[in-house]
Amino acid sequence: MYLGYAAGVGKTYQMLEDAQELRRRGIDVVVGYFEPHGRQETIARIEGLEAIPRKIIEYRGTRLEEMDTGAILRRRPAVAVVDEFAHTNVPGSERAKRWEDVRILLDAGIDVLTTMNVQHLESLNDQVRDVTGVRVRETVPDWVVDEADEVRLIDLTPRALRHRLERGVVYSSDKARQAMEHFFTESNLAALRELALRYAAHEVEGKLESSVENGEAGSASRERILICVTGNPFSASLIRRGKRVADYLRADCMALHVLPEGGWTSLPAGVREAVERHIHFARNLRIEMHTVAGGEVARAIAAFARTHQITQIFLGRSAPRRWFRLGRGTVVQRVVRLSSNTQITIVAQRRR
Amino acid sequence: MTGQTKRRPSPEELLRRLQAEERRERRGRLKVFLGYASRVGKSQRMLHEGLRRKQRGQDVVVAAIQAVVPPDVAEILQKLEVIPTVRWMHDARPYEVIDLPAVFRRHPGVCLIDGLAYDNPPGSRNPKRWQDVNELLDRGISVITAVNLQHIEEQQPAVERITGKRATQCIPQAFLVEADEIEVVDAPPEELHPAPGEPDPRRLGELRELALLLAADVVDRQLLEYLRSHQLTPQWGTQERILVCLTPHSDPEMLRAGRRNARRFHGALLAAHVEQTNLSPADQKLLAAQLAAARDAGAELHTFRPGDFVTAVLQLAREQRVTQIFIGHTLRRRRWFARGPVDRLIDAAENFDVRVFPHRGQP
């Protein structure tokens, strides 16, 4: 995986250079998908490489092109070049995400070279929004990227990147100007770059540690993190945050939703849908999901934490107390009081 | 990073700042390619950049490059003007020295210099090559250069722990940190095929991690400077920064967890306490022990401004770009209508993760 922090840092360029090098060494390389973006220097790098024609998909009257995974499987190269790992396929495609297509190729024994920007990582989604003000919609779960055998950081200084933009190498000139005033500001780029460098360092460390397994962190001292999921829209950020901390601490991670007495059926339809969406999201990030029914929320959380030897509970902020509940305190306050042997983290809810 | 001082700068200080700014404007720009080992491709990247700039009309010369280069590097080198280094013998040891007088006479716009950490022979104008580079910069010549992690003085103890070796030649880290631009040349260790006697892929991986983190710290510093000089508020979240709120009776686990978390995230650890004049001698002793432990844990120590505790915590957290606040849950017995500081902090600290630690021992 060629990892960058913005469009135009040279990920695809470097990937194609390496593909050419493989071809020179006699390895059977094909281009499965390549996004030229009209960048001449990059386009020149594809010369001499065999490209698998894209698949045409009709969607609402427009013809759109996607990678033809079936054709690559039939062609069976040793290595396939697949640009833009985080891409979302056109509705109606066999798989929703390009990274799922990549996994099919890998399962078939085909090596893959691919590209991605750090802001597409699920775990960094909130930080990216905090520093840039942009909520990235196309995300890739971290475990998918962790599966990459090699991650290579493509670094470029923001100054050099902005020069590229000014010269029209990355986008057409009016799009470039717009980009430089918004997402590609010097401070945004520097912040994204820092995130990319730190993430790459974390990836390298993870690879080193998995190669020595059962190192310092024995299972006895292992932390166990519990994330309390609700129907509140903030739950997605809460899940990401808890999972990120769990990943860095190499802790076990599970999530809990407390259902009302009557179970699923007693939830209003809208709330039920939101909870189901959050549960689905947590499962996609490979978090073990639990539900318990009945009783008061704070009590249920505390009881679950006790029986599952949880060392740290992640909660969202409670809604302000209503006057008739003043005496009881919020869920957060009650969890803090009831789980007095557990660390409790109340996750930030930043607004911009 | 230390807290911002709120005082107004003195006239002398303003003058000094202006002069520094002027000097910076006249000075050439320094760009450094940082690698974690040889053969990651630094020289190639440096020469490529030189060539691209030449093609765009800049006046580029090469002032130092190794005598023996791989064929792909030799190919680029042919397209560039080279001012050869001078070979000096000292104590039967050969030194390649930048021909500074020749470079000054030629006065190019941009100078490419490989092997930034090289020593000059005793008796030279400058003992070190990086000092030569400094002179070029002072004369308004921009420099593009390359250096390996093991040649950065402050990184050498860590590198030595990994490889068991210490490079003899080095540059101060400050020189790197103050560069206008630094760029990492990264490659997976598996692709480097180490020769016998060189670090194995595992050790190379550890060096790689160090280089990436060093670059991240440099980028963080530059970002902060940029934001401050443009009067922008520093952003949150590029790095985890943990603030531990200490009292005489804090559970030691809080500091241990802070240290563990900061280390795992390669983040920063801060510890702060309220300055209190009415502490009993016993509590004073306990607090002193807490602070000593925090210092041992590598925490940056702060004190909260006098006044309301919650306001003070939030102010410090904001100033220091804190992402997580650790606090002990000490006040368990309260009247039903009164809210303790922990509850108030949780309510008010919308922008921060607040981690509440159980209080072991007395209720």
What descriptive keywords fit this protein?
heterodimer; A: 352 residues; alpha/beta; Rossmann fold; 2 domains; 6-stranded parallel beta sheet; 5-stranded parallel beta sheet; 13 helices; 17% strand; elongated; B: 363 residues; 12 helices
Assign a percent range to the helix content of chain A: 40-55%
Biggest interface reads: A-B, 58 and 60 residues
Average pLDDT of chain A: 89
* Molecular shape of chain B: elongated
Order of helices and strands of chain A: EHEHEEEHEHEHHEHHHEHEHEHEHE
The radius of gyration of chain B is: 26 Å
What is the CATH top level name of the largest domain in chain A?
A: Alpha Beta
Number of DSSP E strands of chain B: 13
Q: Span from first to last CA of chain B? A: 37 Å
Tell me the β content of chain B.
15-25%
The main pleated sheet of chain A reads as: 6 strands, parallel
Radius of gyration of chain A equals 23 Å
* Overall mean pLDDT of chain B: 87
Account of the protein in words:
Chain A is α/β, with parallel strands linked by helices. Chain A folds into two domains: 2-209, 3-Layer(aba) Sandwich (Rossmann fold), CATH 3.40.50.300; 216-347, HUPs (Rossmann fold). Chain A is built from 13 helices and 13 strands. In chain A, the strands form three sheets. Chain A has a six-stranded parallel beta sheet, with helices on both faces. In chain A, strands 11-10-9-12-13 form a five-stranded parallel beta sheet, sandwiched between helices. A two-stranded antiparallel ribbon of chain A has the order 4-5. In chain A, helix 12 (297-307) packs parallel to helix 13 (331-338). Chain A is elongated. Residues 214-218 of chain A have low confidence and may be disordered. Chain B has 363 residues and is α/β, with parallel strands linked by helices. Chain B has twelve helices and 13 strands. Chain B is elongated, with a radius of gyration of 26 Å. Residues 1-7 and 331-337 of chain B have low confidence and may be disordered. The chains are: A alpha/beta (352), B alpha/beta (363). At the A-B interface, helix 5, strand 8, helix 9, helix 10 and helix 13 of A face strand 8, helix 8, helix 9, helix 12 and strand 13 of B.
